[in-house]
Write a structure and sequence with these properties.
The strands form two sheets. This protein has a six-stranded parallel beta sheet with strand order 3-2-1-7-8-9, with helices on both faces. The two termini are 31 Å apart. The protein has ten helices and nine strands. Helices cover 32% and strands 15% of the residues. By secondary structure, the protein is of the alpha/beta class. Bound molecules: carba-nicotinamide-adenine-dinucleotide. The site of carba-nicotinamide-adenine-dinucleotide has 29 residues, from loops.
Length: 275
């Protein structure tokens, strides 16, 4: 047995016993699909924003900055817009738990909707930082459908210069992803109130756990819950409880290893091969 397999043994046992798993996801579960995360040195978005001429990296997702200059966000949005990227093995592993009625919830910071694309049902997903699914004017809140938004983005030669603009008030339109300076969806808080004491297994994956309030969820998991960190590096307070498992590896490698230990590897590869 490899060191990773040994470490994962209590998690495999818990899944074999029929326990339900809740996920706490970040950008690192999607990097294998080709979507850069924020904070990885060299490859992360923040390391590659120089071309956007921002006062500071986070400004690209800052609501006050967006209201003055939406161009950097829309330059980035073109690269990140859902539709170009397939789910990873890690996403498919979540779906396999759903198929076995062992998925408790998926709290995700990601805006790429890859959990949905992998087939995870709406009732399980809490998109804590919103998604590209809907769009609103930042001034008058008028909704804009996604096809119109995309048409505005494509229209680079027109007077809007590729920036989606409200047909009612001419304000800038933004997808409903949560920017710095904006509140999280109500559902995030109400669902967590219901879930937090009932978590049997918590898998925290691909996140630096730096953005609050999401970052505090793993430490709120009740002491009886088994906590597992799947990440390149150690983050948050994971590792402080005796039962915590630290799987400091690539997310897809851990998904493959778990699938093999559970005898789900053929199914996982089939799902992965379908995209
Ligand atoms: P982050 O701060 O960039 O952290 C990512 C973490 O994942 C780091 O600790 C990395 O070491 C780790 N990591 C990267 N790749 C892998 C991998 N293949 N296997 C294991 N670990 C890996 O990102 P967070 O999600 O923590 O930050 C929260 C922000 C990022 C949210 O508001 C998101 O909206 C935002 N974001 C989302 C996406 C997306 O939707 N895919 C992409 C980029 C940023």
């Amino acid at each position: 047995m490899t060191d990773l397999e040994l470490k994962l043994a209590p998690l495999v046992d818990a899944i074999k016993e029929g326990k339900k798993v809740a996920f706490f996801n970040g950008a690192g579960i999607s990097t294998a699909a080709g979507i850069p995360d924020f904070r990885s040195p060299n490859t992360g978005l923040y390391a590659n924003l120089a071309k956007l001429d921002l006062p500071y990296a986070e400004a690209v997702f800052d609501i006050d900055y967006f209201k003055e200059n939406p161009k950097p966000f829309y330059t980035l949005a073109e690269e990140l817009y859902p539709g170009k990227f397939p789910p990873t093995k890690f996403h498919h592993f979540i779906k396999l738990l759903q198929d076995r009625d062992q998925l408790h919830r998926v709290y995700t910071q990601n805006i790429d909707t890859l959990e949905r694309l992998a087939g995870v049902k709406d009732e399980f997903i809490i998109e804590a930082h919103g998604s590209f699914a809907n769009n609103h004017c930042v001034d008058c809140s008028e909704e804009m459908d996604t096809e119109t938004l995309k048409a505005h983005m494509r229209d680079k030669q027109g007077k809007q210069n590729g920036i989606p603009t409200c047909t009612k008030c001419n304000g800038y339109v933004k997808p409903d992803i949560v920017f710095f300076g904006e509140g999280l969806p109500k559902k995030f808080f109400t669902q967590w109130d219901q879930d937090c004491d009932q978590i049997e297994v918590a898998i925290v994956a691909g996140t630096s756990l730096t953005v609050h309030p999401f970052a505090s969820l793993p430490s709120d998991v009740g002491k009886k819950g088994l906590r597992v960190l799947v990440n390149k590096d150690r983050v948050g307070d994971l590792g402080r409880r005796k039962s915590d498992i630290l799987a400091l590896h690539e997310c897809d490698h851990v998904a493959e290893t778990l699938a093999t230990l559970l005898g789900w590897d053929k199914e996982l590869n089939k799902l992965y091969g379908e995209f």
